[in-house]
Automatic annotation (TrEMBL), chain A:
Name listed for the protein in its UniProt record: Xanthine dehydrogenase family protein molybdopterin-binding subunit
Record's keyword annotation contains Cytoplasm: no
Membrane-spanning parts: none
Keywords, comma-separated and alphabetical: Molybdenum, Oxidoreductase
PANTHER family: ALDEHYDE OXIDASE 1-RELATED (PTHR11908:SF132), XANTHINE DEHYDROGENASE (PTHR11908)
Family matches, as SUPFAM superfamilies: CO dehydrogenase molybdoprotein N-domain-like (SSF54665), Molybdenum cofactor-binding domain (SSF56003)
GO molecular function: iron ion binding; oxidoreductase activity
UniProt xrefs under InterPro entries: Ald_Oxase/Xan_DH_a/b, Ald_Oxase/Xan_DH_a/b_sf, Ald_Oxase/xanthine_DH-like, AldOxase/xan_DH_MoCoBD1, AldOxase/xan_DH_MoCoBD2, AldOxase/xan_DH_Mopterin-bd_sf
Automatic annotation (TrEMBL), chain B:
GO molecular function: FAD binding; oxidoreductase activity
Highest taxon listed in the record's lineage: Bacteria
Methyltransferase listed as a keyword: no
Pfam families linked to this entry: CO_deh_flav_C, FAD_binding_5
Descriptive protein name: Xanthine dehydrogenase family protein subunit M
Organism: Propylenella binzhouense
Keyword match Cell cycle: no
InterPro entries recorded: CO_DH_flav_C (IPR005107), CO_DH_flav_C_dom_sf (IPR036683), Diverse_Substr_Oxidored (IPR051312), FAD-bd_PCMH (IPR016166), FAD-bd_PCMH-like_sf (IPR036318), FAD-bd_PCMH_sub1 (IPR016167), FAD-bd_PCMH_sub2 (IPR016169), Mopterin_DH_FAD-bd (IPR002346)
Keyword entries, A-Z: FAD, Flavoprotein, Oxidoreductase
Record lineage: Bacteria, Pseudomonadati, Pseudomonadota, Alphaproteobacteria, Hyphomicrobiales
Annotated ranges, domain FAD-binding PCMH-type: 1-177
Length: 797, 293
């Protein structure tokens, strides 16, 4: 590994002449999007289209006694009012479990609640009308008689002995439990020079996408086919699931995903209201549109985190951390989400705690419980921010306990860069990580020693600044080990179809998807490089199950690493095919030719031989001039899935520099540095943007974002005024550095970058706040860190 | 969400507006800049029968100085206050405060009359007009009347305006030589409603004329009369500042909400007072940084 290149120059496909790998080329879709010419699912309008609004339960837990549609039905524009029981005749319920999460259980969930609502905001009836406004007018008049049931709100209450089970048939409220015990944990604690221990609390938050979820479903009885326009990360997964629960063949369902205004993991799940929309289209035989408003989004988009982790670590005087032990409890709402389940986040926490370090002794327990709150599931960084905050919080506590600098204790404990391949205490396999190089780079970038001097000088003046560090590892490029082995029909492989068109340009249809992060740019760069054309000659098509090869889509930081490799192999294969045609036309050996910058040239001299348009012209319009036994193949398909490693782990380290106003409790972020290693960097600007955006989505919950529930399970701040999304004015300058350790599993060598920033940001903030407050001898281990929490810790309230 | 159906009329004169109010009574809502009203409609928190848009009444906006008084038309946008040289020179407190109102898009539409009539306790301008001893001029069926700012704010979103009245302008005494002000606001994010804020004004260099107004603390903007009295009695010394902070306990009625508890708000009110005193009386001990913690 090195800072500049992971491979010998001139030897790999990445270093071809006119390579776009490592160049910040603009995204091909940027002009269209900035001119307002995007086509989001929210923009779709079809003839005869109607709109649905949902009547949602005002109670966290209630029996639905009676639904009276009379008053609502009479309003102008109302097309249908449909209850859960009525919709159940069209759509079957689902259960969100995976067989490899042993013991994970959940109850059947319907598209619209039948008999019982289990969280405040669960849909209990659908109102379909000519306009959304008319549907909302009528929804207000649907009279629902509820019998309020006692809600189970806190995790503590859900786990209490004798707690009433939300789903009595499941016996208790524990959806999933995992226990891990590696090495000799008890001995390590017994022999420790110091043991540090605390409880970390993580508030529930959500991912506020710029464009809300959006879906238009169009059932065409004439061809018995359903077309679904949806803002989704996984079109093929949705195709499979919609077909299954409507009792259709997959071939009867087409999912089209146009532009998407941000996903962040929010749009990779199966939402009951979206499934209801699809079922309504089938029932009513006309297009139905559903775009939740923000108030609905807060009670129906998945929430994330909501963990409470009791944790401790054992440390020796020389800084060696000898053991970690955690006990994690998390609440997931009343159902495990389908089909990825709500057990994954806690499972990741168990996997990832202590991950950057050599520490061999590790014990963990995680319990995932049902409760009457909105559903919880995978959001950007799944489990990483929790594991990272716990680990890095303990490491800082250990450093303080033995009087060691926080940088130094990390240097001494990270897995050395030359120790790979390696296996963590939790059993994770690492192909190549670069903790030492990343720490060294960060130390220089932030001028660590100068910051410490500045901090000391300011403290004299009553200004309290802090430095917080956080190393992390990140799951990317998942193989079938993530979902497929658990029985979910979620593809871990992706495919790219590439063809030369009649003008010598390329069209790439690929199964990974674009959510605004630049997938299409990265794919175009890889194709242009591997094949040998200017990037303007590559058009990338994503997001249509009728058009692209079969694949997983974009989630778990897999678009560039997996989709990119499929595109690379397709580019190489098509180049070979085109050179065969060129060789035939030129009566030359294909091996003596190459394609560079859109021209077929002599490989050795670079002399121009023939243009691609001419090859296409001959192959498509004058094949009669070619030998009769030669068939040009100007379209190829290649697929890719990682096989050697279950995940391509990446790593990095964060540093946060902030100031705590000890009078007001306000925290001001001053500067942020992050060094990450995502392997081959295809587009440095897009990687930096991903990292920065990820950091901001980690900083939000560290300081502001919090879904606040009362004791009756009512979400109190479900709107954009009271739920504080981080805004530009409060965000620090974020400097991004890179170390490059390509994965050798793929020729491209790219790992994921999309979630790296989110993994460690909250940990860096909390550590910096505690560093700033260290003169007062207090520490905070709950996020979000609000002024109230800071002042209470300081004893000033 | 979509707003429920309502009627809409854009009036050309105050008389037309007053006639519309008289015709529809409580069912009418005046639309000024719409920055609070439109979100409330879209959230279906309000369902008026009719919106009376007063944006087309030409003589309702503008800033003018005459006889030592600044007159600001009710439809004057926040952005106009922000850019006005008259406001910067003669009402510098307002020029400072207006920068904290929402974001540029909100300031381009929002109006001073709308903000005062809406009387959101966390808004900047109501507290400013209290500190400035402004007079609020309303017009109703029987003509104009002038209401002292200190009599105008009655409670949460509640003012002295009758349902048949329209706020037409604000009159503020122009700044005298030696006048000083302080303005501080604590919000989690720039542009948010304040978690706590202070607007303080001293008409001369001493503490005798000091007026201290708070916003974001209770159900309405509040004058801290007890704190001001303590500072009059003791001066801006450390003893005066300490007495003033103590007096806030009786002056203010802090409320708890999702952003802050009442205890936090009371604490922040004290911190803000110290900071304001430091701005107003930089040489006095009461604002000294080390005394604050």
């Amino acid at each position: 590994m090195s800072d500049t290149a992971g491979r010998q120059p001139g030897l790999s496909v990445l270093d071809r002449p006119n390579s776009y790998i490592g160049r910040a080329v603009p995204r091909p879709n940027i002009a269209r999007l900035t001119q307002g010419r995007g086509r989001y699912a929210s923009d779709i309008s079809l003839p005869r289209m109607v709109h649905v609004a949902f009547v949602r339960s005002p109670y966290a837990h209630a029996r639905i006694v009676r639904i009276d549609k009379t008053a609502a039905s009479g309003l102008p524009g109302v097309v249908a009012i449909v209850t859960g029981a009525e919709l159940a005749a069209v759509m079957t319920p689902w259960v969100g479990v995976l067989s490899h999460l042993k013991g994970l259980k959940s109850a059947p969930q319907h598209a619209i609640a039948v008999e019982r609502a289990c969280w405040q905001g669960e849909a209990v009836a659908a109102v379909v009308a000519r306009s959304r406004a008319e549907a909302e007018d009528a929804a207000e008049l649907v009279a629902v008689d509820y019998e309020e049931l006692e809600p189970v709100v806190s995790v503590e209450a859900a786990l209490a002995p004798g707690a009433r089970a939300i789903h009595p048939e499941l016996g208790d409220n524990i959806a999933f439990e995992r226990v891990l015990d590696a090495g000799e944990v008890d001995r390590a604690f017994a022999e420790a020079d110091s043991v540090v221990e605390t409880t970390f609390a993580f508030g529930r938050h959500t991912g506020v996408t710029l464009e809300p979820r959006a879906i238009v479903a169009d059932w065409n009885p004439g061809e018995a086919r359903l077309t679904v326009y949806q803002g989704t990360q996984a079109p093929h997964m949705m195709q499979n699931i919609i077909a299954r629960h409507l009792a259709l063949e997959e071939s009867q369902v087409r999912v089209i995903c146009g532009d998407v205004g941000g996903s962040f993991g929010i749009k990779v799940h199966v939402y009951a209201d979206e499934m209801a929309t699809v079922a309504l289209a089938k029932l009513l035989k006309r297009p139905v549109k559903y775009v939740p408003d923000r108030v609905e989004s807060f009670v129906s988009d998945i929430h994330a985190r909501d963990h409470c982790v009791k944790a401790r670590a054992a440390v020796k005087r020389d800084g060696t951390i000898t053991a970690f032990e955690i006990d994690d409890e998390t609440g997931i709402g009343p159902y495990s989400m389908y089909p990825r389940t709500s057990g994954i986040e806690a499972n990741q926490v168990v996997n990832l705690v202590g991950g950057p370090y050599r520490t061999p002794n590790y014990r963990a327990r995680a319990r995932v419980v049902f409760q009457n709150k909105n559903v919880m599931c995978q959001y950007r960084g799944v489990g990483h921010p929790v594991a990272c905050s716990v680990t890095e919080g303990l490491v800082d506590m250990a450093a303080r306990a033995i009087g060691m600098d926080p940088f130094e204790i990390r240097r001494r404990n990270v897995i050395p860069d030359d120790a790979h391949p390696s296996v963590s205490a939790a059993g994770l396999k690492f192909e190549a990580l670069s903790h030492q190089a990343a720490l060294a780079k960060l130390h220089a970038m932030m001028d660590y020693d100068a910051r410490r001097r500045e901090q000391a000088a300011l403290r004299e003046k009553g200004v309290y600044r802090g430095i917080g560090l956080a190393t992390f590892i990140e799951v990317t490029n998942p193989s079938a080990a993530f979902y497929g082995v658990g029985g979910a029909r979620i593809s871990s492989q992706d495919g790219a179809a590439l063809r030369l068109d009649a003008t010598g340009a390329l069209v790439c249809q690929i199964s990974v998807t674009e959510q605004g992060q630049g997938t299409e740019a990265v794919i175009a760069q890889v194709v242009a490089t591997a094949f040998g054309v200017p990037i303007e000659r590559v058009r990338v098509i994503t997001g249509d199950t009728d058009v692209t090869p079969y694949g997983g889509g974009t989630w778990a930081s897999r678009g560039a690493g997996i989709g990119g490799e499929a595109a690379l192999q397709a580019g190489k294969a098509l180049r070979e095919n085109v050179l065969k045609v060129a060789g035939t036309i030129l009566q030359a050996q294909p091996a003596a030719l190459d394609i560079r910058d859109g021209l077929v040239v002599d490989r050795d001299t670079g002399r121009e031989r023939i243009g691609l348009e001419e090859i296409a012209r001959i192959a498509y319009f004058r094949p009669d001039t070619l030998p009769s036994d030669f068939q040009p193949e100007l379209m190829v398909v290649r697929h890719y899935v990682p096989r050697k490693y279950p995940f391509a782990f990446t790593n990095g380290v964060n540093a946060c520099w902030l100031e705590v106003d000890v009078e007001t409790g306000f925290v001001k972020l001053l500067k942020y540095w992050i060094v990450e290693d995502c392997g081959t960097i295809i587009n440095p600007q897009l990687v930096d943007e991903q990292i920065r955006g990820g950091v901001v989505q980690g900083l939000g919950p560290a300081l502001m974002e919090h879904c606040i529930y009362d004791e009756r399970g009512q979400l109190l701040n479900g709107n954009m005024a009271d739920y504080l999304v981080p805004m530009a004015a409060e965000m620090p300058d974020i400097e991004v550095g890179h170390v490059v350790s390509p994965t050798l599993e793929s020729e491209l060598g790219a790992k994921g970058a999309g979630e790296a920033g989110t993994a460690g940001a909250a940990a860096a903030v909390a550590n910096a706040v505690n560093d700033a407050l260290s003169p007062f001898g207090v520490a905070i281990s709950a996020i979000p860190i609000t002024p109230e929490i800071v002042l209470r810790a300081l004893g000033r309230l | 969400m979509k707003a429920p159906d309502f009627d809409y009329v854009r009036v050309r004169s105050l008389d037309e507006a007053l006639a519309a109010l008289a015709a529809h009574g409580e069912g009418a809502r005046i639309l000024a800049g719409g920055q609070s009203l439109v979100p409330a409609l879209n959230l279906r928190l309000l369902a008026p029968e009719i919106l009376v848009d007063i944006g087309g009444i030409a003589d309702l906006s503008g800033i003018a100085l005459a006889d030592g008084t600044i007159r600001i038309g009710a439809m004057t946008r926040h952005a106009d206050l922000e850019r006005s040289p008259e406001i910067a020179r003669h009402v510098p407190l307002l020029a400072r405060a207006v920068r904290e109102i929402g974001h540029p898009a909100i300031r381009n539409r929002g109006t001073i009359g709308g903000s005062l009539a809406h009387a959101d306790p966390a808004s900047e301008l109501p507290a400013c007009v209290l500190a400035l001893e402004a007079r609020i001029v309303a017009r109703g069926p029987s003509g104009e009347r002038t209401i002292a700012a200190s009599d105008f704010f009655r409670g949460l979103y509640e003012t002295a305006l009758g349902p048949d009245e329209i706020l037409v302008r604000i009159e503020i005494p122009a700044a005298a030589a030696g006048e000083r002000f302080a303005f501080h606001e604590l919000a989690r994010r720039h542009g948010d409603y304040a978690m706590a804020g202070i607007a303080a004004l001293a008409r001369d260099t001493g503490a005798a004329t000091l007026r201290i107004a708070y916003f974001g603390i209770g159900s309405r903007p509040m004058l801290a009369a007890g704190a001001a009295a303590a500072l009059r009695d003791h001066g801006a010394s450390e003893a005066g500042a300490a007495a003033a902070v103590r007096a806030l306990g009786a002056d203010l009625e802090p409320q708890s909400d999702l952003q802050a508890s009442a205890a936090l708000r009371m604490h922040l009110a004290g911190v803000l007072l110290r900071r304001a005193l430091k701005d107003l009386f930089p040489d006095a001990a009461g604002g000294r940084e080390e005394e604050i913690a």
